[in-house]
Amino acid sequence: MRAKPTIWVPILIVALAGGAVWYFVFRETKGERVTRLLGAAREAMKIQDYATAERDLLDALKVAPNNGLMLHNLGILYVQKQNLPQAREAFQRAVAAHGPQANEVRAEDLFQLATLSYAEKNWKQAAIELEQAIQSHPQRTQLHTRLLDLQLGPLQDPPAADSTVSRFFRTCGRTPGNVESVAYVYYQRHGYARAEKLAAEAFAGSDSAITAHVVYARALWRQDRPAEALRSLDAPLARHPSSVDLWVTKGFLLIEARQTDAALAVANRAVGLAPHSFDAHQLLQKVYANQGRLQDALREIDVARELTQDPNEQRQLVGQARTLRNLLQATNGTEVLSGKVASGTSNSDSAKATP
Predict the structure, then answer these.
(1) Mean pLDDT confidence for 329-344
(2) Residue 15 has pLDDT above 70, yes or no
């Protein structure tokens, strides 16, 4: 016999009630879904699974289309994928989502936009975006120094640069660290006299401002005062004997002075202090190259390759290796006399003087 329909009614009621309880009690809220998708996207980005990360972020944005944090992450994702037009759109949407109020997150998205404009060589647009970023987060040093670099470099606008420096010191304080940062930018943009003066002010205020000591010595060297440059490192090295940056700077200046034996001793000391320092191994490579020990120099390039993920440094190493191999080929695999290596392999400014 077929069961009577009334038998199933209580069962259906229980099932519907259970479903209703699950829906209202255990279902995922919009906020929880956004959080889950954002977390999954971040994990996918860590392993460079960009397709999954993009899918999760776009799904999350369907739920919360004006979420600035997700738009920022989407912009970063597109940058990593080298999809710069979509990255710009995402960062612009993020800035709009944050609104005109000043905050650190909005400043970061404007900084990302300025970075894209800089890569596109749209210098004026980059300056505008950096100005807006400073308005949102005036205490962030990097925004001021990046704008200064732009004004001293591509824009070639010294009066604007002076104004930027004045505002930076007025807003963030004329501290040794801030003066050191400005000195470094002036040095990088070939304002050696100004860099020398600012660096001296920085380490006078704080002897631990190592970058200021480095910039000061390099600025003297760039102004054709090599002996003075080398002497300027003696006292700081006596007080900071474990500073790899100071030893690396001294080594490069010794190479320029053609004192390669002394430079070798300094390079070995730097590598001993910091075996995993890219700059220390670059110094040692350049000493070997200038002594004509090309095979040893090539081995140091191989070591340096393992110590950096910076694409510019990787390209630099490829160029150095090519030069050395060409020299080896030209001499049928034999070593060359000291001082015969192309000057490009001993560029004393190739080592970073960053904090």
Answers:
(1) 57
(2) no
**How far is it, in rounded angstroms, from Cα 71 to Cα 75?**
6
Q: How far is the C-alpha of 216 from the C-alpha of 276, rounded, in Å?
A: 26
Average pLDDT, the chain: 87
Cα–Cα distance, 301 to 321 (Å, whole number): 7
Reported pTM? 0.82
Q: What is the largest CA-CA distance in the chain?
A: 111
What does the chain come to in residues? 355
111 token code pair: 């900084």
How confident is the model over 44-62, as pLDDT tens digits? 778 777 788 888 888 878 8
Say which DSSP state 128 is in: H
For the stretch 254-273, pLDDT in tens is 999 999 999 999 999 999 99
- pLDDT at position 44 is 78
How many CA atoms lie within 13 Å of 66's alpha carbon, on the beta-carbon side?
4
Structure tokens at 271: 């590598």
Radius of gyration of the chain (CA): 29
Amino acid code (one letter) for 221 = W
Domains in the chain, CATH or no CATH each: 242-355 (1.25.40.10)
For Cα atoms 278, 281, 287, give the angle at the middle one, nearest 5 degrees.
140
Residues 6+ apart with CB under 8 A from 138: 102, 171, 172
List, as one string, the DSSP characters of 186-242.
HHHTT-HHHHHHHHHHHHHH-TT-HHHHHHHHHHHHHTT-HHHHHHHTHHHHHH-TT
Euclidean distance between CA atoms 210 and 217, whole angstroms: 11
CB 123 within 8 A of CB 150: yes
Where are the alpha helices (H) located in 64-190, listed in sequence order? Answer: 68-80, 84-98, 104-119, 123-136, 141-152, 158-172, 176-188
Per residue in 319-328, pLDDT (tens digit) is 999 999 998 8
Give 71-88 pLDDT, tens digit per residue. 998 899 899 889 999 999
User: Would you say 78 and 94 are in contact if contact means Cβ atoms under 8 Å apart?
Assistant: no
Rounded to 5 degrees, what angle do the CA atoms 159, 161, 162 make? 65
User: Which of 204, 284, 199, 212 has its CA nearest to residue 243?
Assistant: 212
